[in-house]
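Marked as duplicate of an earlier ticket. Keeping the data here for the record.
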Amino acid sequence: MGRGMSFPMIQFTKEKVVIVTGSNTELSEDGFERMFQVNYLSQFLLTAHLLPIMKTSGEDCRIVLVSSNAHKYASRFDVNSIHYKGDPEKFSSYQYYSKSKEHQVMQMFSMNHRLQGSNVAITSLHPGVVNTEFSRYIQERNCCWNCIGKCVWSGAFTRTPFEGAKTTIDAAVNPKWKGKGGIYFESCKEATPTAQSRNEEYQTALWRHTLELLKNHLPTDILQGLEGKNE
């Protein structure tokens, strides 16, 4: 997953690469559930690589994680269930998509705690339901969820890509949010994510598990910084 990176200066990074797999569980080349890797793990890795550069790139650097209010539908958090090991016929793509979006919110809280006193602020947000090609990949076995998903993304309830970008742009450049991290946004306003995503015990468990998964893809100094060993 990791490759050498070199950037002179970075003041803003927006992390958004989203997939929804089909009705069967799919593994990445690295052996992880694909949505977990693409929607969460890969973005965590990229952010980790960029942090040292951002810390030397000026006084107002921001990381914006584009999550989703789908995180509200994630089942009870259990670090042992992150990697689906059950019957492939019982895999719920929407549930694991929701989990991957919840992981982003939890990452935001954990990383914000570690960035206190620095020039880097991290936030996350729900951009709204945006009318894109996303709905093509909704294939949920539960016919109720499948119908709801297709209906919601049909256009009647969605925002245009421009409207969907507003909250991200606001979080990235609005002077009002300078130096303010640990905030979850909806429609350009502060909102409250789920109690589960705000649970510090769960956040710590996910953070430690993530670093364990990525330890072979991060330089020692970055890994130690994320572990708090450089403090």
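See parent ticket for discussion. The beta strands are 12-15, 61-66, 120-126, 183-186, 189-191.
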